[in-house]
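tool_call: predict_structure(chain=1)
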Amino acid sequence: MMTITRSEVLLKEARFYAFHGVMSQERKVGAEYTVSVTVGYDYAKAAESDTVDDTLNYAELYELVKSEMMQPSQLLEHVALRIGKAIFQKWTETAYADIQLIKNNPPMGAACAGAGVNLHLTNDKTKQC
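tool_result:
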């Protein structure tokens, strides 16, 4: 006998060209971004049924993230929170969401692969971590 104690749906390093930034030039010219999302979601039913309707469909997750990425914002923090809110609104039984949003080659005069934010959100309705 076994028990699924934790299950997650992942979207790893999805790439987008979007128009976020504090400087107006960033919002005009745009930049490349990488987004990774981990969603705590009980997919035990889908694991048994082998039916996509019983799970959080990662193709739909990608489209949700894409939609939020296409809305220009000054701060990556704001975009990450919007993504999280949209996840909880669409999949209300989500336990938590981890969102990593990286601006590749940020315009800050430093040689680095990227800079960005990590956000961990817990759904107060599910009381799981």
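agent: The longest helix spans residues 76-90. Proceeding to next step.
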